[in-house]
Design goal:
342 residues; 15 helices
Amino acid sequence: MSGINPRLKRGLWLTAGLSLATLGFIVQRSYKQIWTVFMDASPLYLGMALLAVAVSWLMRALRLKVITHALHYRVSVYNLGRVFLASCFAGGVTPFNSGTYPTMIYLLNRQGIPLGKATATTAVDAACTSLIYLLLPPVLFRLTGLSGTLGTWAAVIPALAILFFLGALVVMTVHKKDPDLLAWVKRHPSWARLLLKSGREGKVAAFSEELRHLKKGIRAIARSGFWSLLGLLFSTIAYWVAFLAVTPLILQALRQAFDYGSIMLRQMVVQFLLPMIPTLGGSGGAEGLSYWLFRDQIAGAALSAYILLWRACTFYSAMIFGGIMLTSLLTRKRKTSVRQQR
């Protein structure tokens, strides 16, 4: 991992430490029984769980392919899959998974896509992922048993943040005038003086230009036609179906009886809350949250075994392959252009 920033390397060690410490705390009372559960597990269903993870990765790469195709840039599904996994690695070693989308933008730009259109690609990809979470606040409210003011805020704030994000994209897309942050700043004397003193006028102008590229990119995707929009819908649904299938497949491998609907809702809540956990990549919090939400659904040692296998399938695998992909992408020369489609 010689091409990776030292901060990301430190984040990797902290992520591993937090996650392993939490897992150790969870399994320490029943490690003998856990070994028995593992020995009795079904290799077929474990293999299917791993296959579901691979399919979810492929669907994310295909969604990026649909978006970049709509923007008239050619990047292979293979390279887009590498970009996705590398961004997963960056998110896994930063607080609140905050490194995911900036890394994706940067790596798409290294693939030869202009920065503004790389930002548009990432914004649309994030919007497609976020849409399903608008269904979750009432589910979160019901499952956690939160009530009163705390429950209301816990359920509503994340949904409002997602709606604000989606709304900003819509407003930017439909508004006739191009965004010009520099002109807006100069119309306000106090802000203009502050900008003049800071010497950042060039950077603000560059940011305004990127916002214009972002707007054009989102408009191009919105006007890309029926088949592109259908591709976005299919890849998004297929991604969530494959990803959420991992949990029941692992439970089937562990020979556990469970209520499918209840398990799926709890797993969606875990995914919804993961980006809000302040630790690096949600490490520690993801394991603890899963233990708390599933404790009434899965028996003792099997619960600890499930959490170990679930994190191995969905997180550690992405970290391993993502680290490899990030290293290879950073050590290769930046592409200066991508052949545009006619």
